[in-house]
Specification:
Elements: E1 2-10, H1 14-32, E2 35-40, H2 44-51, H3 57-64, E3 68-73, H4 88-99, E4 103-109, H5 122-125, E5 129-135, E6 147-149, E7 154-156, H6 163-178, E8 183-188, H7 194-207, E9 214-219, H8 220-229, E10 236-239, H9 241-255, E11 264-266, E12 271-273, H10 292-305, H11 309-324, H12 344-367
Parallel strand pairs: 1-2, 1-3, 3-12, 5-10, 8-9, 8-10
Antiparallel strand pairs: 4-5, 4-11, 6-7, 11-12
The structure holds 3-isopropylmalic acid and manganese (II) ion.
The site of 3-isopropylmalic acid has 7 residues, from helix 4.
């Protein structure tokens, strides 16, 4: 097994959390005897400072010439005044477009161990395990025309979808639901938007090919409330780009912290893995960011881009073991806890140790 991974640490806490995720992958490679090659390139504000562009050509080339891309985070207050096309976020959008992945899978899981740091009552969040599938290459993020028309003192963006774009994301969502609890919720705003009415029609039509999956539709405003009122009722959720951006941050309340959430973007020429959280400039460089979202993204990388299902499961199990052993960065430390918070590196090292144990035990088991 040989794979090449392009690593884009990016800005803020990106480098700290990504290096923990890379350590975890290296430990899989060591223990299992795989060859994982890592190529690191700049993106976002860091790339803009070094090269004048947030998504330089050499970064794009490395991303197109590998098996998977692992990204940290982009953005920061000193880049807020850069022209729109040179902002760190523009670099990320160019990366997503270059790779072509249109389906962004964002799981939100209510770990028992983080019960005390979620504002939701335990009986409400218990057992919740939602997979939000966000369309990533369409809608307001990319629709043309778009402009800040200063002469006319106005600005506009365009929400635009083709039937083809809706159909392909719907298929991914039904496939995912089929392998889980066979429930799919499609979220739209069909009482107001034409794009949403078409979305609903297309998803319903695609659903005819998946009679084993129960499909429901809900308006985004109502769903935003339902997801928090009764999170354990939902399985897979599919929605357009901006709705998915908003709902996935909201889903962090179920997990307990945005720092726990991972994502995989699939369907393009090279898949992209990134935690859902941003660059958190206020805590950057302080060794206190939660690396679990980045590490869980590395698990998704093995699952989707290397088909190493059992190794991916082992990383997820090592994350749970680390939480069960009481390891906590400040974002997931209960308010009334008398524990001292752990550092980013301590949590990362603990995951790596738990993982090596799990993998070694598996190897020993197979040897008998
Ligand atoms: C995310 C982020 C990005 C997005 C930003 C940084 C452009 O919020 O991945 O959710 O809006 O897609
Ligand atoms: Mn977001």
């Amino acid at each position: 097994m040989k794979i090449r991974i392009t690593v884009l640490p990016g800005d803020g806490i990106g480098p700290e959390v990504t290096s923990q995720a890379v350590n975890v992958l290296k430990s899989v490679a060591d223990v299992c005897g795989y060859n994982f090659e890592f190529v690191t390139r700049p993106i976002g504000g860091t790339a803009y400072t070094e090269t004048g562009h947030p998504f330089p050509k050499s970064t794009m080339e490395a991303c197109l010439d590998c098996n998977a891309v692992l990204l940290g985070a982009v953005g920061g207050p000193h880049f807020d005044t850069a022209p729109t096309h040179l902002r760190p976020e523009a670099g990320l959008l160019q990366l997503r477009q270059a790779l072509g992945g249109f389906a962004n899978l964002r799981p939100a899981i209510a770990f028992d161990a983080t019960e005390a740091c979620s504002p939701l009552r335990p009986e409400i969040r218990r057992g919740a395990d939602i997979l939000i599938i966000r369309e990533l290459l369409g809608g307001l993020y990319f629709g043309e025309p778009r402009a800040h028309d200063r002469d006319n003192k106005g600005a506009y963006n365009t929400m635009r979808y083709s039937e083809h774009e809706v159909e392909r994301i719907a298929r991914i969502a039904f496939e995912q639901a089929r392998n889980r609890r066979k429930k799919l919720m499609s979220v739209d705003k069909a009482n107001v938007l034409e794009t949403s009415r078409m979305w609903r029609e297309v998803v319903t039509r695609v659903g005819k090919d998946y009679p084993d999956v129960t499909l429901e539709h809900q308006y985004v405003d109502s769903f935003a409330m339902q997801m928090i009122l009764t999170p354990s009722r939902f399985d897979v959720v599919v929605t357009e780009n901006l709705f998915g951006d908003i709902l996935s941050d909201e889903a962090a309340v179920i997990s307990g912290s945005l720092g726990m959430l991972s994502s995989a973007t699939i369907g393009g020429s090279v898949d992209l893995f990134e935690p859902v959280h941003g660059s958190a400039p206020d805590i950057a460089g302080k060794n206190m960011a939660n690396p679990l979202g980045a590490i869980a993204s590395a698990a998704m990388l093995l699952r989707y881009s290397a088909k190493l299902t059992s190794e991916a499961d082992s990383i997820d199990a090592a994350i749970r073991a680390t939480l069960d052993a009481g390891y906590r960065t400040p974002d997931i430390l209960a308010k009334n806890s008398d524990r001292k918070p752990n550092t980013t590196a301590q949590v990362g090292v603990r995951v790596t140790e738990a993982l090596s144990d799990l993998l070694n035990r598996r190897i020993a088991y197979h040897a008998v």
